[in-house]
Amino acid sequence: xxxxxxxxxxxxxxxxxxxxxxxxxxxxxxxxxxxxxxxxxxxxxxxxxxxxxxxxxxxxxxxxxxxxxxxxxxxxxxxxxxxxxxxxxxxxxxxxxxxxxxxxxxxxxxxxxxxxxxxxxxxxxxxxxxxxxxxxxxxxxxxxxxxxxxxxxxxxxxxx
Length: 160
Fold this sequence. Notes:
elongated, alpha+beta, single chain
């Protein structure tokens, strides 16, 4: 027997070839490349069909401006030092809003500039995230209730 789900979780990975330099003690380090990996976890409401490509395209379009670039030359990293933490935090803020506008809720974003180190921003325990999931669940439950009521009314009309 199949159970109805109040939400579904999806995980997408994106890769960017980006260069950057770090300023330490007022001295600019050498510009160097990384293949950055970003793992994006998204929640969507209920049994709603989600075409992975929809979210992939949104994320790809957002990240495209950074591909093969020197991060230090692109806003906001022309004034914010592009560490893995700062880059992931900025991408998190931007992607959270973008995904929310398109029916998804960002659960977490993991950024890595090497295979051995990651920085993770997670929203699972934040009040705003919990509130958004609650709204998604309420909407899903309302849809189920509406469907059941419609079925009852329809069945009764058939009996008349």
